[in-house]
Amino acid sequence: MEPFDEDAQLMVRYRDGDSDAFSTLYARHKGPLYRYLLRQVRNAGAAADLFQDVWSRLVATRSRYEARAKFATYLFHIAHNCTIDFFRRDLKMRNTARPDDADALSEPEVPEYQRPDGIAEFAEQQSALLAALGALPREQREAFLLHEETGLTIEEIARVTDVGVETAKSRLRYAIRKLKKSLLPVPIPDARPLRTRTI
Amino acid sequence: MEPTDDLDEYLRGDSALSRQYRRESTPMPPHALDRRVLGASRGAHGKSPCLAPLAFAASVLLSVALVLAIAFGPQTAKRVDDAPRLVRVAAHSDALTNPALNRKLHLYSSDPKSARAPAKWLADIAALHRAGRDREADAELRRFHSTYPDYSTGDLALRPGGGP
């Protein structure tokens, strides 16, 4: 089958033993993938771990790769699965950390990357748009990031996230509507016309 | 404006939202992470899946060669050499009078050409002579003559009246 895009051709070459093809693929996709993960999990350490995990899975499963679709959908489908696993693990960790007995009133143990100071530090570096992006529900944020970082169409976003096209479209629509509000200029409460002195 | 229009405008790629997002900082993975990923990709390449069928084929070939060597190699020839040893054991322990060993001897003797080499057989006969077991030696020599009628036995000859 003829590969769908140049990246798919590179992946086929890597599958067949060309290491340089992987270097090119990596250079092209490392930025978008890293930002997708960073803005999804909102923690640099966790994003770095997931980033490595995604590429490791790609390398480990290279022999089964078939160029059936755009390479980015393949890569980001792996990334989507990795983040789903991450959020599941995170939820499980929070649930198991919740004590049932006398310690119930104390603070539950949370991973370092979820501690308030870490989140605050991350949030300080953000613009209004990125802060609004971080405040979106995860699925809406993901739809927006997939389109912005990789240029995937709604159909491709649906395929990556394992949902129907209408669901993907709806998620993206809501994301845009909320994010656009963050672009509106903030009104200055004390803005009054200057008084001019009449002579 | 309707949300649908927002989406259409956004998907065209020239929305204010997209422009603003592209102006945001674009963090990249740390260089250490780059090195780790690229190193892992090359390391995995050393263990290329293309080599797996080759390795499998090589081990199959090696196994077949081993089986063939065991079945048809020098070990088989040695087995022919081993046969007279049984005869020698039988001779030394009066095997001819032992029915169980006799049966074994008969088995080996039923097709002597495939079981014994002439030179080895003659050496066994000579050994019987040296041990003073002339009757047995003569019997073996007769058997030898009937198997190899054209083979010169040299100074080994049937003694008159030495038959069984």
Explain this structure to me?
The complex is a heterodimer of chains A (199) and B (164). Chain A has 199 residues and is mainly α. Chain A folds into two domains: 1-98 and 111-125, Rna Polymerase Sigma Factor, Chain: A (Orthogonal Bundle); 127-182, Arc Repressor Mutant, subunit A (Orthogonal Bundle), CATH 1.10.10.10. Helices cover 67% and strands 0% of the residues of chain A. Chain A contains nine helices and no strands. Chain A is globular. Mean pLDDT of chain A is 84; it is low at 101-111. Chain B is mostly helical. Chain B has a domain at 77-147. The model of chain B has no long low-confidence stretch (mean pLDDT 73). Chain A binds chain B through residues 14, 16-17, 19, 22-23, 26, 30-31, 34-35, 38, 48, 51-52, 55-56, 59-60, 62-63, 125, 127, 129-130, 147-148, 154, 169, 172-174, 176-177, 179-180, 183, and chain B through 3-4, 6-7, 10-11, 15-18, 20-22, 24-30, 33-34, 36-38, 40-42, 44-45, 48-50.
Radius of gyration of chain A: 22 Å
Q: Spans of chain B with pLDDT under 50 lasting ≥5 residues?
A: none
Main pleated sheet of chain A: none
**Which stretches of chain A are poorly predicted, pLDDT < 50 over at least 5 residues?**
101-111
How many helical stretches of chain A? 9
Shape of chain B: rod-shaped
Could you tell me the radius of gyration of chain B in angstroms? 42 Å
Summarize the structure.
Chain A is mostly helical. Chain A has helices spanning 6-15, 19-41, 44-60, 71-97, 116-124, 128-135, 138-150, 154-161, 165-183. Chain A is globular, with a radius of gyration of 22 Å.
